From TrEMBL, chain A:
Coiled coil regions in record: none
Matches recorded under InterPro entries: ABC_transp_permease, LivM-like
Recorded superkingdom: Bacteria
Keyword Membrane annotated: yes
The protein's name: Branched-chain amino acid ABC transporter permease
Membrane topology classification: Multi-pass membrane protein
Keyword entries, A-Z: Cell membrane, Membrane, Transmembrane, Transmembrane helix
CDD domains, sorted: TM_PBP1_LivM_like (cd06581)
Subcellular location: Cell membrane
TrEMBL record, chain B:
Alphabetized CDD domains for the sequence: TM_PBP1_LivH_like (cd06582)
Primary subcellular site in the record, as a coarse category: membrane
Family classification: Belongs to the binding-protein-dependent transport system permease family. LivHM subfamily.
Name used for this protein in its record: Branched-chain amino acid ABC transporter permease
Organism of derivation: Pseudorhizobium endolithicum
Localization of this protein: Cell membrane
Chain ranges passing through the membrane: 6-25, 37-55, 61-80, 100-120, 140-161, 193-215, 227-251, 263-279
Keyword terms of this UniProt record: Amino-acid transport, Cell membrane, Membrane, Transmembrane, Transmembrane helix, Transport
């Protein structure tokens, strides 16, 4: 470990510690805003964990988010709280492994198609189960958890997610992922078990997403399938990760913060039109910043640095 | 009961086949994975609703307006949105990702416009809702008309693709976009027309759906999903495959809805999709991938 790394780790710990004190400074509205923002930061980072390096675009974020939220709603009275999160994570991981085993052996487009309808499938299955087996649609969650408690749990999850993403970026499995993203044939010839690596990362990413849903569930008090499986969540996560740049550790964070604030503003001021604006912004990002803001700035920076001495020399001559 | 289920399954399947044929052209020839396809279908359904309830033009005659509108929309979208993506794509995989992302954005734009214009309510209209006796059971005339329309449009497309020089050129692009220019085919133009024809078929499908189903501004996703599954089942770019796979999917769904539970139709769709992925990912009618 060199000095720069130690400095980065110290900075990270200091940031997390500082963020932990935020609820004492801002009011109840601030805490609510921070919960939403942190939730999306974790979602986008977890999404980029798998989809960034492998370029397998997952459109199923809300499927796992909803599984987490609904698991908490169903078992909130029968299972004590910390265990509840473990159960939710386990169910999310199970679903991810089934989806992954079916699709990750094949070309990326099958995976995209499968994840595209997954949220709708799970929503219909949950609705069917609730209507036919339990006879109720919609559940109340009464858990003694304060908004501050939710905030701290999300902060811890965010810290863990960043640590995992940082570790993966410098480990053998991270290297394997990048090779897979560049060229799967090369990856196979290097002796990488490509299905295994993809499956492991997809499972990890989905487990984190499920936990975000589970932790945020007590905020709603009332949950029904159409609330828990709202497709806007998948969409927002995707835009945030892409705006910042899905290949970098801090890219999703840089995308999530401004877009979340803008989304809050849009949905407050244009409640009927915000999906049109979001769609247009998203299309613009795909066209103008295909690899994210960070990569764009870096490219400009190197271009500028390369041009600088050249123009200087011509001035001398 | 069995005959009724089979007939309504064929009606549904005919509709799926019709919309899937458009998607298989867009994906197979233009190489654009269009996730906003279902929104194009639903837009056409709303258009048919407006011209029937607002102007009293019946939906079949209205096809003369809706199909060209769908074609024009596809033509413009390809020129404005897809062509720059095709131009900058390094290979097939990066075009796939770019087109998936761009059309995912388009999905939300179209859906937002529909929600603002028509609201989130279930919409439907009454057209030819009279019973017709067929094989000893009663079928609504509009459903029968839907099946006939789906088969007519599908058959016409099949003849167009297999019997004309122009259709042969389109199929050549589907097989090998790199070699097609060597025999004097303008790949760019072929892709643009394939995408536009896909838009026209989506519009035809939307009109057919609006004749016998209720629809909402947000139901496009499910149609995209089912069309995609039919395309994979039939083999990408394979029109006859899409026709057969669409009919199979419609019949299976109707049987599940009739004999098991109507709430499980999407689960049945996914079950078929899973089986195809595990067993023959290149499609039931396609060649086995090496």
């Amino acid at each position: 470990m060199n000095g720069k790394t130690i400095l980065a780790i110290a900075g990270f710990i200091a940031t997390i510690a500082a963020l932990a004190f935020v609820p004492f400074v801002v009011g109840p509205y601030g805490v609510t805003l921070m919960i939403g923002m942190l939730g999306y930061v974790v979602l986008a980072t977890a999404w980029a964990l798998f989809s960034g390096p492998t370029r397998y675009v997952s459109l199923a974020t809300v499927a796992f988010f909803g599984v987490g939220a609904y698991t908490v709603a169903v078992f909130s009275e029968s299972i004590p709280y910390p265990l509840l999160l473990l159960v939710a994570a386990g169910i999310g991981l199970g679903v991810a492994l089934v989806v992954g085993i079916a699709t990750l052996r094949l070309a990326g487009v099958y995976f995209v198609i499968f994840t595209f309808g997954l949220a709708e499938l799970i929503r219909q299955l949950v609705t069917w189960y609730e209507v036919n087996v339990t006879g109720t649609l919609g559940r109340y969650i009464f858990l003694p958890i304060t908004p501050e408690g939710i905030y701290w749990q999300l902060l811890a999850l965010a810290a863990i997610t960043f640590a995992i993403a940082w570790w993966i970026g410098r480990s053998r499995i991270g290297l394997a992922l990048r090779v897979i993203g560049d060229d799967e044939v090369v990856a196979v010839h290097c002796g990488i078990n490509i299905t295994g690596v993809k499956l492991a990362l997809f499972g990890l990413s989905c487990t984190i997403i499920t936990l975000v849903g589970a932790i945020q569930a007590p905020r709603w008090t009332y949950v029904e399938p159409s609330i828990a499986f709202n497709p806007t969540i998948s969409f927002l996560t995707l835009i945030m990760a892409l705006l910042g740049g899905a290949h970098r550790l801090t890219g999703p964070l840089l995308g999530a913060v401004p877009l979340f604030l803008m989304f809050e503003w849009l949905s407050a001021n244009f409640p009927n039109h915000y999906s049109i604006f979001l769609g247009l912004i998203f299309i613009a990002i795909v066209f103008v910043l295909p690899r994210g803001v960070l990569a764009f700035i870096e490219e400009r920076w190197t271009l500028w640095r390369r041009n600088e001495p050249v123009s200087g020399r011509t001035a001398d001559e | 009961m069995l005959v009724t289920a089979l007939l309504s399954g064929l009606v549904l399947g005919g509709t799926y086949a019709l919309v899937a044929m458009g998607l298989t052209l867009q994906y197979g020839i233009a190489r654009i994975m269009n996730l906003a396809y279902g929104e194009m279908i639903i837009s056409a359904a709303f258009l048919a609703y407006v011209i029937y309830t607002g102007y009293g033009i019946n939906p079949v005659l209205g096809l003369l307006i809706t199909i060209p509108a769908g074609f024009a929309f596809g033509y413009v979208i390809y020129g404005v949105m897809m062509k720059p993506l095709v131009a900058r794509a390094r290979d097939k995989a990066s075009l796939e990702i770019d087109s998936i992302l761009a059309t995912f954005g388009l999905l939300f734009v179209i859906q937002g416009v529909l929600l603002v214009t028509f609201g989130a309510n279930f919409t439907s209209y009454n057209y030819l809702n009279v019973a017709v006796e067929l094989f000893g059971t009663n079928v609504a005339a509009n459903r029968l008309l839907a099946l006939v329309l789906a088969l007519t449009v599908g058959g016409a497309l099949y003849l167009l693709l297999t019997r004309t020089l122009w259709g042969t050129a389109l199929r050549a692009v589907a097989v090998s976009p790199a070699s097609a220019p060597l025999v004097g085919i303008d790949v760019n133009k072929a892709a643009r027309y394939a995408f536009a024809i896909g838009g026209g078929l989506a519009a035809a499908g939307g009109v057919v759906i609006s004749m016998y189903q209720t629809f909402t501004a947000t139901s496009g996703v499910v149609f995209t999903m089912k069309a995609l599954i039919v395309v994979i089942m039939g083999g990408v770019g394979n029109v006859v495959g899409a026709l057969s796979a669409g009919l199979i999917l419609g019949v299976v769904e109707t049987f599940v809805a009739t004999y098991v539970d109507p709430g499980l139709t999407l689960a049945a769709t996914y079950g078929i999709f899973l089986a195809v992925l595990l067993w023959r990912p290149s499609g039931l009618f396609g060649r086995r991938a090496g």
